[in-house]
TrEMBL record:
It comes from Micromonospora polyrhachis. Residues 1-29, 546-574 are annotated as: Disordered. InterPro entries: Metallo-depent_PP-like. This is Calcineurin-like phosphoesterase. It comes from the Bacteria.
Length: 574
């Protein structure tokens, strides 16, 4: 086990010049808006990338190649007051939300409900450092740029805090290429004022008082590769019966195992084969992926999801109140003993989460104009086809143009609605409720198109000569139909969400930037671990450049205060 200490801060004159404005030319990156998750082209491209990652991920797996890289673990001993460690996940989305969190993480100290909490000596990023897909440009604008702007450097002579990162499924969409270039470089190993010492996509850190942090790379939930297992088996030789382990994983498989019993298998295998033989205890499992804060408590272990680093809010009101880990219906032949865990805290609370859900009627059209355009186009084509049949233009080119594709249009809407209820790239089983709700949505859209056709035929436009009816339909009917169909989709999402279907789409379509969170952990000198879950009810949407600030201060500061509070009272583990 080596003692990788961060190098001293670079001299002031080698640091990037402070920008005098928020212009991209001054910042060196572009402040990106939130990802419009229901945009048609984005849905298609992201779905294809997810499908390719699922089908060919094993052939593009770079974890086997990492066996040739350094196998050293890391040591963060802290000082006489212990060690502070920050955890953030799901951060690489819109600038305002991402930078609001980064700004608080970078401050030398924040005060939360009267408690002064210094900046972490270590920062762990828990997955999905970029959205929607990984690329060098996306990392630059959505991750590296905002975090460098938040902490451009530390004070001269001061030790740089170390930054470690775990890849999530979005980091894996390019086979982990851009992730390794940013976080596992052998030269220029810094991200603003943070040092990036890691060499692999997984790592182990020895912490004070025989606490350990093991961060796994599950390659989108596929499996744990042999070089990674050997790496952790070597690290685990330093563990003993008094050791306490924090296990950082890319996704909360303990929650996902409720619908997909195999989701927890890789984590359970790791605990049984690597940790359990040493006698050490896994006291905390920590992940992002679901964009909220939730904590489940068991007999001797806490399971925390904290994915509030910048991505759209994910609901909390449908979380199961109790879960069994590992699930009893897992196909693993010799799983660990099943324990019951209860939901003890969540942020935002269930009532606020439900209220956010009702906001879909206003937010969906504002966040996803391209989705409404697609709906308007589909409804216009279907209306023209239905109108052609209704007027029975037998033997004319109109009938050939409009009535023949009607069956195809009906099939497209029904199949599309069915797939929308449970996309092929989504995990878990497809239940009857997915089919019923999906087809009901499709039928409702067809009923709306029928009503639109009846209204259209009462107007004089359909009798105009030549191509004028088609042009008029595109100009007048399409936008109205798209908006109404969007509201129908919003109503469907709200109803389906009540049955646990399309919950992700209900909130992804809204792109809620508020209600963000991160963790600040303190390893005390007497061996206790205190977890401070920090909640940001409302992010900042207005920033001002600070060209004359000290070299170690953030390049931009909020024009209004950016208050933080505890998502729940601090928790102490021993």
């Amino acid at each position: 086990m080596t003692d990788d200490q961060a190098p001293p801060a670079p001299p002031v004159d080698t640091a990037p010049a402070r920008p005098r404005s928020c212009d991209p030319q001054e910042l060196g990156f572009t402040r990106r808006p939130p990802v419009p998750w229901l945009a048609p082209l984005l849905l298609i491209s992201t779905g294809l990338r997810a499908l390719l990652a699922l089908l060919f991920g094993a052939y593009l797996d770079k974890r086997e190649l990492q066996n040739s890289l350094s196998s050293d673990g890391y040591r963060e001993p802290g000082d006489q007051d212990g060690l502070w460690l920050d955890y953030v996940a799901d951060l690489g989305d819109g600038f305002d939300a991402t930078y609001s969190v980064a700004y608080l993480l970078a401050q030398r100290e924040i005060t939360v409900e009267g408690q002064r909490l210094p900046r972490g000596d270590v920062l762990v990023m828990g997955g999905d450092q970029v959205y929607p897909t990984a690329s060098g440009e996306a990392y630059e604008d959505r991750c590296k740029g905002p975090y460098q702007a938040a902490l451009p450097q530390v004070r001269p002579g001061e030790q740089m805090p170390n930054l470690y990162a775990v890849p999530g499924n979005h980091d894996w969409y390019d086979g982990l290429t851009a992730f390794l270039r940013l976080f596992a470089r052998s030269r220029d190993n810094d991200l603003g004022g943070w040092c990036t010492p890691q060499h692999r996509s997984y790592f182990s850190i020895e912490l004070p008082s025989d606490w350990w942090l093991f961060a796994l790379d599950e390659q989108s939930g596929a499996y744990l590769d042999d070089p990674q297992l050997r790496y952790f088996e070597q690290a685990a030789t330093a563990l003993g019966p008094e050791s306490r382990v924090i296990l950082v994983v890319p996704a909360p498989s303990w929650v996902k195992a409720v619908d997909n019993p195999g989701a927890y298998d890789a984590v359970d295998y790791f605990v049984r084969k690597v940790i359990a033989p040493t006698g050490a205890q896994v006291r905390l499992l920590l992940s992002g992926d679901l964009h909220h804060y939730a904590r489940y408590t068991g007999p001797d272990r806490e399971l925390i999801t904290c994915g509030g680093g910048g991505a759209y809010l994910y609901p909390t009101h449908k979380l199961p109140e109790r879960i069994e880990v590992p699930p009893r219906d897992s196909l693993t032949r010799r799983p660990s003993r099943t324990e019951s865990y209860r939901l003890t805290a969540r942020y935002p609370d269930a009532a606020r989460s439900r209220r956010y859900g009702w906001g879909v009627f206003g937010r969906l059209p504002l966040r996803n104009p391209g989705f409404l355009t697609l709906l308007g186009l589909l409804h216009t084509l279907l209306m023209l086809a239905m109108a052609g049949v209704a007027v029975q233009r037998a033997g004319t080119s109109d009938r050939g143009l409009f009535s023949v594709p009607m069956v195809g249009m009906l099939a497209i809407i029904l199949i599309g609605a069915g797939l929308f209820a449970k996309p092929p790239s989504a995990g878990g089983k497809r239940h009857a409720r997915h089919w019923i709700l999906g087809l009901s949505h499709g039928i409702a859209q067809i009923a709306l198109a029928t009503l639109g056709t009846w209204i259209w035929l009462t107007l004089p436009f359909h009798d105009w000569p030549g191509a004028l009816p088609v042009i008029t339909a595109g100009v007048l009917y399409g936008p109205v139909a798209g908006f109404v169909a969007g509201q129908l989709t919003a109503a469907y999402l709200l109803v389906a969400g009540a049955f646990g279907v399309n919950l992700n789409e209900l909130f992804a379509g809204q792109g809620i930037e508020d209600a963000k969170c991160f963790l600040r952990l303190h390893f005390g000198p007497t061996g206790e671990l205190t977890i401070y879950p920090i909640a940001i009810d409302r992010i900042s949407r207005s920033w001002q450049a600070d060209p004359d600030g000290a070299p170690d201060t953030s390049w931009m500061s909020p024009t209004d205060p950016l208050p933080a509070r505890f998502a729940e009272p601090p928790l102490t583990l021993r």
